[in-house]
């Protein structure tokens, strides 16, 4: 069969396009460590990614990171950023393909001291109120999706005895009158269960942990700062102004006006000076606040035959910019509880973490109610004594610490 000249041209162009597309597809990766340039110590929870492409990951507690990105984005800048440091920017093409030993040094950003007399006269509550009032301006108000990595873990006297991990999709719809403004779906997940777990810790978990740490201010002002609750706290401007992405950041400290405030917190709110956007909320519950939230009063310290005493409830939420708006970057929560059974004391520590790895548009109906994640205990148990990352495919994840990896030596059969 003879082909016409135009047909031959068509096939030639098609073959070229197919070849070009194939070369453009696929993913590249960078992995390594982020450290302080002055002290050479690792920097935990630093963002690593391409802000222009809405993708990224976070360093673990040892400063280690793993970042996978589409090959087509090779000429985009990799940004490393965390409050208190000057941002690092470098084109991905400057690195060796699939380089696994990257060391990125961040230079501390010298904070600017604030005059003490100014702090005394400054009305910090107004700064917080203004930031809360600008949530609708600074944060997205149309439906969108967050792809991210979730990890919840249980430590028993410092040893990991339970780890649940998943790639999650969180759909948010900040529009008014939406009955379910936030939905969470697990794309894939697993759990490691140790046979060394004490019976004293039975039932000690957060089945709705994924829902907690994917929540953000986009869909509503935090209840403890909403309306009249704003006046339940005393606010004070910190004596230094920090920096994030080369922009000034005000840090407002807050504490309850008295011990009678329900579910009281003590912490800080970091506010971007340029647009009054909230970029970090960090707090501990007070001793009285812990009792209100977990209902562990003097008459409720016995759980079955086990005494329990909650020591700490800590939360830290960070936001990052993309396309003129601020989105949830990561959410971390810690719960420490002291258990006593048969005169043996055991410290149980639950850690919850969600890290946004990609931001996508949505119509508000990408996650049907039938797909909503109910309980992370339903994740498939890992019985193979190996802690690998093949399960995550092309999704980004947070590198487990060496201590986490040790759980595979104690898996329940």
From TrEMBL:
<dbReference type="InterPro" id="IPR008969">
    <property type="entry name" value="CarboxyPept-like_regulatory"/>
</dbReference>
<keyword id="KW-0732">Signal</keyword>
<protein>
    <recommendedName>
        <fullName>Carboxypeptidase-like regulatory domain-containing protein</fullName>
    </recommendedName>
</protein>
<feature type="signal peptide">
    <location>
        <begin position="1"/>
        <end position="24"/>
    </location>
</feature>
<dbReference type="Pfam" id="PF13715">
    <property type="entry name" value="CarbopepD_reg_2"/>
</dbReference>
